[in-house]
Structure formats: C-alpha cells, structure tokens
Amino acid sequence: MNGAMVAAPGGVQQAITDLLRRGLDEKVLNAVLVPARVPAGDSFAWLLVRDSSVLEETQPLPPVMSVQGARAISRYARGGVSGKVAAVLRPCEVRATVELAKLRQVELDGLLLVSMDCPGALPLKTYLDDPQQGDADFEKLLSGDETVAREVCKTCHLFSRPVSDLHFATLGADNGQASIVAGSEQGRLLLDTLRIAEKSSLDAWERAVAERQEQRKQARTQAQAAFRQDIAGPDKLLETLSQCLNCHVCRSVCPICYCRQCYFESQALLMPPDNTLARARRKGGMRLPTDTLLFHLGRMAHMSLSCVSCGACEDACPSSIPVARMFSLVGDATQKQFDYTAGRSVTEPLPTITYKEDELSDLVAPYFETYSGRETAS
Amino acid sequence: MTNGFEPKILYILCSWCGTGGAETASAHGLRYPENVRTYRVNCTGSLPAVHVLRALVEGADGVAVSGCHPGDCHYESGNYHARRRLANLKTILGTLGLGDDRLWFRFVAHGEGRRFVDTAAEFSDHITQMGPNPLTARRDT
User: What pLDDT score does A376 carry?
Assistant: First the structure.
C-alpha cells in the first residue's frame, strides 16, 4: 500500500492546513469544516471555512474535544451538502459520523472526511481551567506522553485508519514528514486533482499502527476489567451514579443521541403525584427527580450499539462521573454480541434494524418437557 | 419450592401468541402462580427496552417475555427484533452486574397453554431461588 509523502515541518496540523488551502484555492473544495481556536483563545469550536485566508486561524488537531465533530457535521449536513466539503475529524469523530449516516442524520454524499493518527485529547475541564498549561500538556501528548490524556483516550485502540476518505499518517514517520493515505476513490480523486502522487511506502506506518493497536487492546482489556470491578453490582453502580445531577448533559453532547424528543425529557416520565407517592411508600422514600438509574440504563439500551467511546459525555459531566468509561464498557459488550463495531463500515447495517433467523440460541430460555413445579401442587 | 419469599413477576406477552397461550391455558383449566402478573403488548417487537428496565428498577423481581415462535410472528419479524433487543438488555444488565438472569425470553405459541403455565411457574421458582431484586428496595434510583 502506498501513500503520498508530504512535508510537515510544523507538524501534522501544518500539513492538513496546506492540503485544505490548496483544495480551496484550486476550487476543488467548496468549503472545509475544521476546528479553530475561539477568539478568546481559551477553547476550540468548529468553523465552516469558505475563504482559505481564514485557515490561518484554524487548528485541525485541537488539544481538546470541545464539541464532538460528528455533532457539528449533523447540524450542517443532515440534508446533504452542496458541492464538495472537507471535514477534518479525529478517528472517533469519523466513526460517529458513519453511525449518524446510518441513522440518516448525516448525508455523506459530497462530504470528504479527513482524519489523522490521533494522539488523544486532554480532559476538557483541565484545559479550560488553564489553557496555557493545557497547550503545554498537549505538546507532551504529541510527543508520546500519554499520562495527560483522557482516560478513554489512553485505552483507545481505534486511533488510526477510520473509514475516512483521506488519512494523515504520522506514526512511525520521520519528524517533519507525514503521509496522506487515500481511503476511498473520492480521496484518491482529490489527490489526483491536486497532482499529489502516492508513491511512498506505508510499511513503517502500518507496522507502527499495528504495534500500538496491540498495546492499546491489552490496556483496554485490563482497564475495563478493573473498572468493572469498581462499578458492577447494584451497590457500586448506584454509588458511582450517586452524584448525578440529572442534568442529562451527557445525552446533549453525545453525537449518537440525535433524537429531537428524548424519551427521558418527555412527558412519559412525568407521573401523577399519586404514582410517585406510591413508589415512595413502597421504598420508604424516593429520590427526586426520579429515574436517575433508568436514564443511564435506558440510554445504554438506546445508543450503546453505536457508542464510539469518544468521551464527550465524560468531558461534559459536571459531577465527573466516569460516564464514558461506563458506556464504552457496556458498548464494547453489546457490540461484540452482534459482531459489530460502531463506525467500522458504512454498509454494515445497524444491529437493531437487521436480524438472522438462526441466532442467539443461548438467550432463549430452553424448554425441554413439562415443568413439574408448583403449579401442579396447587 | 419456598424460602419465604414471594417474588413479584412481570410476564410480558404479545397479543397474538403469548396471550393466546394464556387463553389456551385457561380453556384447559391450567393454573399458574398468582404472583406472576401478565402484561399484554401488541408485539414483543414493539416492546420498548425502557419498560423492561423500568420494571426491574422500580419493583419487579423478574421479567419474562413470550412471543411467537420464529417464523410465526404476526408482523413477520417482530419476534426476531425482540430477541435482539432483549439480548442487548441482558448484556447491559450482565455487564453492570445487575442480574441478567432476572430477564427471560421464551417463545410460546397460541396453542401452547401447558408451555405458558410451565414457563410462568418455572420462572417464578427461578426468581424465588435468586431472592429479591436489590434494586427495587433502593431509594436512590
């Protein structure tokens, strides 16, 4: 497999910006969607750029994930885009975009997804507390010091090679260089149009990616086993969730939770006072607002099959509940039972809309013969 | 089988096969434990996951679901979708250590009255053995 070697003297961000600039200047791209530092300088936001001079303000690989990229795209490209628009995304943002495309919240036609080997992101709260320190921490992260990264990033094994059209490969490359890998015909066409030849070998990169992937997979298995010990069981789980404010911000920032009317925000949970009183009587007392555990379990039932472990929920949680680790633990398990990986493929159907006639035989309680239990005795 | 605990059981039945099984049982004078409360839904495929979760969090010691056998669904594929949805729920409950054994899924056809009462009794005994669902007593759910 070959890629296009490009110079990246100022790091991969520079290389991405250069490509976007050429795309805009040569009118191959109509616009690009890319993160940029906010004018106040202390955070990042998505910017839909039409004029290549604005690209100077952008930062394709920001230190934090202030808004999940798929969420930004779905706000813009739900009904499709006109012309050709490139979106620069971290791999987990690409995977969420793919899931949203399957959920018909993003129209992929005309979108050109550009990704990069992701070093991880910093926790949003620590960055917002001290952006200068955050920028310094991100430099550390870029040079391979993972201790400053978010917990979900430390155990992310899908940090490279998403199903994007163009991917910037930096792992295993010499300093000041990067390779562009075309992941689709569309991506290859763009490189052709911009007269960028795919001539350099990607062997070193593929080896480096495979190696890190293996490390991360092991780290993930270990971390999840340890985390499960901490939260599994009614007592530990409710202890983990005890600080939940019922603000539902984990749902608001989740790229997958697209429903305009969420069940848990609807009238369905507003019971008549007598009903709540009956519940309080049964238990001796009732925490209000009700249904904290039901909200989290219900959300898992609704979206864990599409969870991409991006960590946006945990970043946003005001009570610092390890929501993302909880959801990726459950998401990995639910996806595994259907041999599904969220965002792995655009054509693979969502597990909830398809079925096999012969499957899940373990799930169905077996019935062999007449049960001679209590009903005959009574 | 008794350990002094009578569980609250919710038995969710589709309106075509599961409920039919209950009707056949009554036509034959078969009885099932009185702590099993049946709950009718149009199709197991239309059963929202949240309703099952809500029962398990707010009061039921166990939830059983019965719908048409594979190939028998009145809406062609509702039972297959239900099977996937319940597999998903069981995985969530199991991963979080909330007792995936408190949720059962078994196909029951319209004519299978015996199978219906057997399932109700067997599940009730199974939950009696498991003991009370710890979540239902918690005030902080």
Answer: 45
- What is the predicted pLDDT for the residue at A378? 38
| pLDDT given at position B121 | 93
Interface test with A, best of B50, B58, B80, B104 (most A CBs within 10 A): B50
List b or e across A347-357, with b for residues whose CB sees 16 or more CB atoms inside 10 angstroms.
Answer: eeeebbeebee
CA distance B110 to chain A (A): 16
Contact between A237 and B96 (Cβ < 8 Å):
yes
Q: Is the dihedral of CA A123, A125, A131, A136 positive or negative?
A: negative
Interchain pair A279, B58: CB under 8 A: yes
ipTM here: 0.94
Which residues of chain A have a CB within 8 Å of the CB of B115?
367
Q: Do A352 and B81 touch (CB under 8 A)?
A: yes
Alpha helices in B35-112 (DSSP H): 49-58, 78-95
Q: How close is the nearest chain B Cα to the Cα of A279, in Å? A: 8
Contacts of A283 by beta carbon, 8 Å cutoff, 6+ apart? B136, B137, B138, B139
- DSSP bridge partners of B9: B36, B62
| CB-count burial class (<10 Å; 0-12, 13-18, 19+) for A111 | buried
Q: Hey, what are B67's tokens?
A: 């719908």
CA atoms of A33 and A69, how far apart (whole Å): 9
Sign of CA dihedral B31, B32, B37, B43: negative
pLDDT beneath 70, residues of chain A: 369-370, 372-378
Question: What are B126's two structure tokens?
Answer: 């199974």
Of B53, B87, B96, the CB nearest to A232: B96
Nearest CA among B92, B19, B5, B21 for reference residue B52: B92
pTM to 2 decimal places: 0.94
In this structure, what token pair is assigned to residue A74? 């779905």
For A82-111, what is the HEC assignment?
CCCEEEEECHHHHHHHHHHHHCCCCCCCCE
Q: Give the nearest partner residue to A294 out of B33, B54, B120, using CB atoms.
A: B54
Contacts of B87 in chain A (CB under 8 A): 337, 360, 363
Minimal CA separation from B22 to chain A, in Å? 14
Partners of B1 on chain A (C-beta within 8 Å) are 373-374
Decide if B98 contacts A237 (C-beta within 8 A): yes
Task: Please check whether residue A251 is in contact with residue A312, taking contact to mean a CB–CB distance below 8 angstroms.
Answer: no
- The CA distances from residue B81 to A232, A352, A354, A355, in Å, are 27, 7, 8, 7
